[in-house]
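Protein 1 of 2
SEQ + STRUCT:
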Amino acid sequence: MGTSPLIEGEEGEAILSEEAGDRINIGLPQAQVDFVKQLVAAGTKIVLVLAGGSAIALGEVADLVEAIIFVWYPGQEGGSAVADVLFGDANPAGRLPVTFYQSADQLPPFEDYAMAGRTYRYMTQAPLYPFGYGLSYTHFEYSNLHMSAATLPADGQLNLSLDVKNCGDRAGDEVVQLYVCYPDSKVTRPVKELRGFQRVTLIRARRGLSSSRWMPANSPTTARADLPLSRGRSRCWSAVLPPTSA
């Protein structure tokens, strides 16, 4: 299920809309929503394989299904990749590169070119799924966050480190994400801003927990986070995604 270039492309159905090229909604076609409802009413448990090329407002469908695999527009081996995830041969570790909104009502008017309310950087409402969101068949815990300095000059850099632990019974990848904000800025700045990320592969938990250190280094299980922050006090986030499992 999902959308297609005919639905979301500028030369598809959008060109016939009253907006002459712009989509009037970002939800699923009503026929698909009705089909899911019929399956659920019959007692069927559903893992929704969702295709599309942009954010989709799923509405009530998100609460009706057991899980969602967003496959974008898969290529020749897309079917094999989806099967590997569905049957547990592959452990998913993708992260959303866009914000999934609750509905088009969360989007500012198209004629308004201001950034307020747009993308994860300026949005203050709760989205359906935030930028950077993704689940796995295992779950992770973060601990021991350390900063290289308590203050940061305008032309300096700040390095952070933390432990990432695989608490599940199978190997998996986690994507550590670091966000910053500027609460005392005298100019308009993003609500939060991605400043660093690192994918780490951790073996399943046995004889204790597998862990990885995120710090200035260059190896498969470490990363460097250089944060050019503005002058004045700043706040930093790590691990914005909650440690949950699919």
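Protein 2 of 2
SEQ + STRUCT:
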Amino acid sequence: MSSRSPITAISTSIVAGAILACTTISCLQSPPVSTSKDAQIQQTNSSPIESSPHICDISRLERDVAFFASDDLAGRGLGSAGLQTAQNYIAERFRLLGLKPAYPDKSSSGKHADYFQEFTAHGYPATANVIGILPGTENASSQAIVIGAHIDHLGTDPQLTGDQIFNGAEDNASGVAALLEIARLLTNWRVDLKNTPNSLKDNPTADPLALRTIIFAVFSAEEVGLLGSQHYVRNPVTPASATLAMINLDSVGRLRDDQLYVFGTGSAQEMPSILDGLSQAYNFNLITQSSGIGASDQNSFLTTEIPAIHFFTGPHEDYHKVSDEIDKVNFAGLERVTNYASELARYLAYRHRPLTYVPGSKQQQIKIEKMNKKGNRKVSIGFMPDFAMESGGVKVGPVFPGGPAAEVGIQTGDIIVAIDNEVVDSLIDYSTILRDHAPGDTISLTIKRGAESLPLKVVLQERK
């Protein structure tokens, strides 16, 4: 079992009462939940609107992360009862907030079924995205905003000694908790606007009630290749032409030194100035990357020419480890990120002009197509990249103890410039090359360390 922080211990009785006894996708359609357990999930989700209506409620973030990262949910692996429990919890929160279900015609199929976008990817268990809608006004632009986060994680590994549960407190209980709190804040904001005299509204020069629709999408199957978000963009609530932008919240619970990474800032011409303007009140040191192409759900939207950004609080040694536990989450930092992302969504909802999508270079698009054709990457060298470096190689971030990189002496700050004599200019090149390999393969690396160029051989490990 995992070591439990005080927050997790407090929440254990709540989680245990809220576990839903379901083992197949049919549980999503019609969960076999007793009335008493249903009531307990509602208690966990109680008073979704009333508390702290205008600012982020840190106690809600703590409670939601504790729920999602509990041992009782067993790592929220794809196809597991724990993942389905988390999805029912999210759908119930959407219902209590008054978000409209994306699929009202399915309401007769069972509790919460109208919030589920079900799908099955070849070779994987059936699963679903959870989607709730905060409707815009009739006089607003037809373009909607998507706020997304993935809820699935890595489940359990019985081959491990000791703790075998990948609780994923930061990846991505933190992002889903932030999304739920943003949904509450924006729901309250809409209610307040309806009851505020026009002269006191935020934007008196335009119709202050002309607000865009906001779609809250909690994706499944991200960890096995962004399958949930890929399914969504192929079957969207609103088509790509009617989607203004996507905001992705993935791993936002480890804010350090005020450094907030934002990927995809170059996907819309206006985005850098919008982000800079809003960040002044939050004192973030924004580390931006123009390209948003990466291993998270914004990638699915960018490939359909929708401006998309990814908020991320930086690499750490607990990535995809059982040590990604709630006691390492910086809740004060998560609160700041949640408020900032909420402010961005509020601005975009008010914005009457479209964003100007900026496609990547033709060369980059060719590289991305080549990478995507190779399928999912199955191997790892045993470190997390420093995502702030966009070109000139892949900079090594935290090195995982006991992994291949550590065994051959790779250090944080090293830059990988070639693999098997193929030039590595970016993370796209790096990922594309590694997708041709299997665990146990030996590769040759060329590494820059200061002025030195070091040749190294590494045996690849399975990627979790």
